Amino acid sequence: xxxxxxxxxxxxxxxxxxxxxxxxxxxxxxxxxxxxxxxxxxxxxxxxxxxxxxxxxxxxxxxxxxxxxxxxxxxxxxxxxxxxxxxxxxxxxxxxxxxxxxxxxxxxxxxxxxxxxxxxxxxxxxxxxxxxxxxxxxxxxxxxxxxxxxxxxxxxxxxxxxxxxxxxxxxxxxxxxxxxxxxxxxxxxxxxxxxxxxxxxxxxxxxxxxxxxxxxxxxxxxxxxxxxxxxxxxxxxxxxx
Length: 241
Prior knowledge:
241 residues, alpha/beta, Rossmann fold, SIR2/SIRT2 'Small Domain', six-stranded parallel β-sheet, three-stranded antiparallel β-sheet, 9 strands, 30% helix, transferase, cytoplasm, NAD-dependent protein deacetylase
């Protein structure tokens, strides 16, 4: 669905008038870069494996069956050659111009940083960072891609991606920084998320302003709370800025 011209003009007006914008994004931000949305028709939840994706991507499964975890993880979670799209690039521009103060993302692909954004709070971690569970030595994503079976550290410990798996809690400092940014925002843009994943979606309650913009192709539980609702793709909106 194409965004209404009047709604787009209002969106642009609010962006021009605001100086502490926060962007809160989900999987829909990266679908235009070729990274599948977990819950879309072509997403991970609709593909067949020996175990459901939500089982494989759980902490207990990683501990119990790391070999099967990494088989799925390398195949489906490490998207090679993905590049930032117009939304990533425009958000980086807004930050550089001093208008956007933070990005709070549920994504783990590192594309916001690749686009040039500096203040990015990754609620669910990043596939680009990996560490040994035993000695905490750091390993980059290429080490994981090029390893076989379960990647092991020099010390013999198992290497784990720095992503938040099911059954794991979110990082305390990331949450507190996200809450602070959202609470101080004069405009909150929420994009590409179904707002179905908690506790991430619960962070929006800390925004008390009157410029809550919701951009998503499908409806969300917070549609009625939005000051401006744009039911379309993010690229269609950010390409207008």
